[in-house]
Amino acid sequence: FTGMRPSEIMRYRPEHWNRVDRVLTVLTGKGGRTRTIPLTAEGEAALRDLEALGAVGRFSTSTVHRAFRLALARLGITGIRPYDLRHSYGTAMYQVTGDTRIVKELLGHSTAAMTERYTLGHVPAYMQIAAARFQKLSNGTESSESAPATVRRPRQ
Description:
mainly alpha; hpI Integrase, Chain A; 3-stranded antiparallel β-sheet; globular
């Protein structure tokens, strides 16, 4: 819900959360840099849960991974790492915005090349719509008159 690195979550402190503006100051640990990210309602709920459980403060990476694996095992899910949640967030943000610059800033990447792993292989929605319409036309299930002449690429 935040796109934070597991190490950033481990450094979270309640004073990093501006509840009025609904933003979080993230301490990256990379060169002492910080970034500010907007919080969704789900992100705020996750932070409240962390605080309610007393799970705020410095703890080990192995503890995070073990707790994550146990939680997934209870749900019958395997093969997912904590970092996969960050990748899912990055991919979803790219699908929503179509803008690698925004995703780069939200994830705290220093270069666009780092962000490309979230965008490579992604087929934009306008291309999916065009392919679906082409398929209908080629199957004869849609007439060329009912399909728009063009499917426009969204402005960047």
